[in-house]
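Summary for the steering committee. One of the milestones for this cycle was to obtain a three-dimensional model of the protein with MRU bound, which we needed before selecting residues for the alanine scan. The sequence and ligand used are listed below.
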Amino acid sequence: MALQTVRWEDGHLYIIDQTLLPTEFKEIRLDTQEAVWEAIKSLRVRGAPAIGVCAAFGVLVGFRQLAPPDAGSARQAVRQVAGYLATSRPTAVNLFWALNRMRAVAEHRDAPSDVETLYARLESEARSILEEDGATCRAIGESGESLIRDGDGVLTHCNAGGLATAGYGTALAVMFRAHEKGRRFQVFADETRPLLQGARLTTWELMQAGIDTTLICDNTAAQVMREGRIHLVIVGADRIAANGDTANKIGTYNVALIAKAHDIPFYVAAPVSTFDLDLSSGDGIPIELRGTEEVTQGFGVPTAPENVRVYSPAFDVTPSRLITGIITERGVLRPPLEIAIAALGGGQTAFA
Ligand code: MRU
């Protein structure tokens, strides 16, 4: 897959506008910190790792916009832009992880004292975040590919593909790698109400890769499991607490429950940067609430009475006890997840 979800060229930030897919493939340039914030908020760029990569370059965009005259105001500019971009979406910890990395460059005790050199160092950090994401996703694919056997049916929810990362995906990386190795299997993609990331993005990516793909409505998952067509579930993650509780797209918890009821293994695929060891359980994960209109008139067509009350959390938390394993770039973590996760070390601290 040669997707470039986020691209930095000649000092400019480009993203694929995912709100237009699959009917239109268009790159847009984000020239202000406000444009970067809006692109994240409105899901033009989305998926936990992709948001982090985009925000890292967003710090450069904001830095240039503020044009700080000296080192002191340059450090302040990085703090200000990072703080602003951190308010775009609350759940995916990769956003805060990437912004913290950018801030750490500016606040390092050996940070350059001239603005140009500091900018160059920030640019190099953002590029590293992008490049590391590529290598990490490949390693996730390699860690998990053997879980998919010939003839399997795999169910996924939302989009944890190239579009959700810098280009190769997490849950879909496992499928891409198994496919590259010649395994034959079928993927069932939940459409993923209300913004249809499964229907619009996951099927688009899988079909381009030549993988046998079937789109199902979200409420069809239990039936296809009952029909014996699903052998394993693989989904992505937005934030994983220290005990393995996992926030991912709303509806993931439903899938985990019905997978358990059918004795089907349920895997999460995610980079280590998605673990938030500051949170002992999923209870502390902030869940984003989305606007009414995404449910009542998604894609412009009214589908509910005007003024109806709507509750639309963008994510839910799947309890650790429902998770068979977490596929990371360092291998597959198995229960007890709390112990396997602690052994990874590290952890994120989200700043306000
Ligand atoms: O609201 P979205 O589209 O950003 O939600 C994305 C997901 O829930 C993905 O599954 C998750 O970020 C993992 S992406 C590798």
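Key point for the committee: Residues 23 and 200 are 9 Å apart (CA to CA).
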